[in-house]
Amino acid sequence: MPSSDSTTGSALKILDVGCGVNKYSGSIGIDINRATAADVICDLDHFPYPFADRTFDRLRVIHVIEHLTDVIRAMEEFHRLTRPGGRVRLETPHYTDFSSFCDPTHKHHLNSFSFRYFGANDAGFGYYTTAKFREISVRLRLLSVWRWLGFEFLVNAFPRFRRFWEHYLCYVVRGKSMEFEFEPLGPAVSPGRPPAVSATR
Q: Rounded to two decimals, what is the model's pTM?
């Protein structure tokens, strides 16, 4: 059943990016593979996607971002496609999980601070992009033994402990996956932004 907006009762317009064979119910699915349940076939590394600015209320990007060539450009495209007040749900492996490296199609290995460029706490690197997001939530899942011992609760309940865990503990107390929810801020980023180029002498 399609999701709906509780304030208006109207159905939410949802884009399932890299939907695979298990497209989210009620969504429009896009994928490069014709053997999937996608409604639109397109190369997810080629921008812009074939939709107008601010088309969707929700974007689902489930275990896709790690496969894409340009994380920053992909996030800019998600920003462009999501309406003000909309949500981007993104899931990806934590880089300490074996699944991050056992799949040869993974191009990026990420942690829970990998998207800070897009927020207020950008560590001085906000000049990489004009696409800004508010991080509504981040939830980490840890391997089962560490979840049972209470580490997953500590990592998710206390931001300072999460930072400490990322810096010092995660190589032993290993993560499994991460779930983010973002809200786009400001105007849509232009789809015509040129790719980054290396400086030459």
A: 0.88
